[in-house]
UniProtKB/TrEMBL annotation:
Residues 210-376 form the Glycosyl transferase family domain. Residues 16-197 form the Glycosyltransferase subfamily 4-like N-terminal domain. Residues 427-555 form the Glycosyltransferase 2-like domain. This is Glycosyltransferase. GO terms for molecular function: glycosyltransferase activity. InterPro entries: Glyco_trans_1, Glyco_trans_2-like, Glyco_trans_4-like_N, Glycosyltransf_2, Nucleotide-diphossugar_trans.
Amino acid sequence: MNYWLLTTEYPPFHGGGISTYCYHTACMLAKQQIAITTFVPDDNVSDYKIMNTPEGNRIIHFNTNRSKTADYLGYTARLSYEFASIVQHIIQQEGKPDIIEAQDYLGIAYYLLHFKHLLYPAVKDIPVVITLHSPAFLYLEYNRVPTYRFPDFHTGEMEKEAIKMADWLISPTEYLIEAIQPYVDISGRKKVVIRNPYIVPDHKPAPAIDRNKIIYYGKLSPQKGSFELLSYFKKLWDSGFTHPLHVIGGTDIVFHPEQLTMGQIAQKKYEKYISNGLLRLHGKIKPSAIESELHSAHVIVVPSIVDNLPYVVIEAMALGKVVLASVQGGQREMIDHGVSGFLFDHTIAGDFEEKLQLVLSLPDEKIAAIGHAAKEKVAALYDPAVITRQKLPLLNEIIQSKHTATSFPFLYQNEFKPVTCNGELLSVVIPYYNMGKYIMECVQSVKAATYSPLEILIINDGSTEPESLAVLKQLEQTSGIKVFHKPNEGLADTRNYGAQKATGDWLAFLDADDMVAPDYYEKALQVLKHYPNVFFVGSFVQYFGDTNRKWATYTPQPPYTLVHNPVNSSGLVYKKGAFLEAGLNDKKVDYGLEDYESVVHLISKGYNGVVLPEFLFLYRVRGDSMIRKITREKLLYSYKYIAEKHSPYYTTFATQINNLLNANGPGFLFDNPSFAVTVVTNPENNSWLFRKLKALVKKNKTLKKIALSLKK
């Protein structure tokens, strides 16, 4: 078996449980003579570097900007794109693996899974398994991070979509499957609980415990239950409890609501208890000292309010220590209460204090018996030999039963009315108004398309320039091109007119000054023909003309699509029946947002679309274009009109829309959710002098014209 593992962490790049999991998994698989390759981001290399480890793992370190994506993709989006890029590059060099496994955290498999489901040959038939560890959309919520603020919102959406698109989900606990379900519906996904392998290291003989020594080992963070733990101990200390709490681990996690580190908060709020020695913040200690510190503990407390598989519990139990852990996490599946450790419930008042007093009262022989049972529990659940017997048959089953999905796995899709597409002909509709300067380049790009058969329909919307009319006469004599003339009615009506005249079952729009890459239509039609639940296809956008900037577009999904257009909506490829049913452009937003409204209308009716993550659409930027002349007032009117027209659909996502706008500002002020945005509002000057000047301008026609031109 040729097994590829995608991760952000692998020794010596330790970040936590993911790193531990990947190392132990690599050792387990290598022992079974499985060829394992692990892909790890590493900006210390300029491109990529391959090395082998003593445990038999081949590591591919790659630069997170090797494809030069930093200008148009924020870090987590770029990281995911580079994972997909390096995987496809190594496939070109060596051939395909049998299976790929990736972590959920940061959505690193998002673009790889998009390439797979968009039928890119290198990866379309490779099974991809997501192992659930610690999705940011779940953990950030508990750490009170503003999860709707960019780029964290987009990272969470990437994680959810990757989970939805994976062939299989593997979770080390039932708890995490239950915790994820409210955020992303995985009820119909193939999933299984397989514990993480853990190789128990050789430990030194355990010394005698220090009676009443209580240790919290781990980073101080809200998600780890640090606030609750400290409040419990404050209550105990105020009631005469004399035993200190030892906190071993980092204290530099930022608590976002206060914009302070957890250490700063603890030192400020619990200064009295620190000064009298009851709260002892040891900070990070050397790895070589951890075992002796834990060995000396009477009890190790794990008070997480949400957790998957805290390795501190495994490590402590493997040392034969008594662990007192919350039931709010996967740790409840690791401990048999009263036998191999103890559990308490945050939702029961006084439960922690009661269970702690119980543990502290245990005689030495009982502590030793629980420690022995804890060691046996770790061996029974996490021994690599046990995990191998569970995981290898599943992997072989996944490899043997691999198939290409017949339905695209969207996060959200409404029920839709099926449309019929039997023919092969693609109709490319080009709206035309005084575009004689650019139309030849546009037409040549369509004629260079690798897809056939296709027809080109140029819809002349009442052009007036002699040069543009002369070019049209020339095009009318060109084979494969139909030219239609109509009175000037605007872009919306012109697109709709062209759609009605199209004879193909497949439809594409292309503005007369834009162009397409040769393989755009071929790749788009491949997807449209394969998936009955995909109705339009777009791509990344390469600007040209006045700028050479790039725009990474996104598969249109709510709620983001309801606050900003995420796709190259002026150059999409459709199933024509879907466009005629729900995509016709609305002239009431014919300021440049008529194609955006069309996308909203389509997805509201279940006619979802996807984006090819390549620069296949070329958008000309010129100062005199319609979209460049759009004013703030036109934008405000258009956004209001679109939201009100599709009010029932917007209502479904009202809370998310409200949170997005509060976190990032008006939707027309941003266009890339993978980057952070900062919105500043400046109240209008209301001084006496300004009011007088404003009144004067209103009365003077010349000054009024000047003021309006400046306002644009």
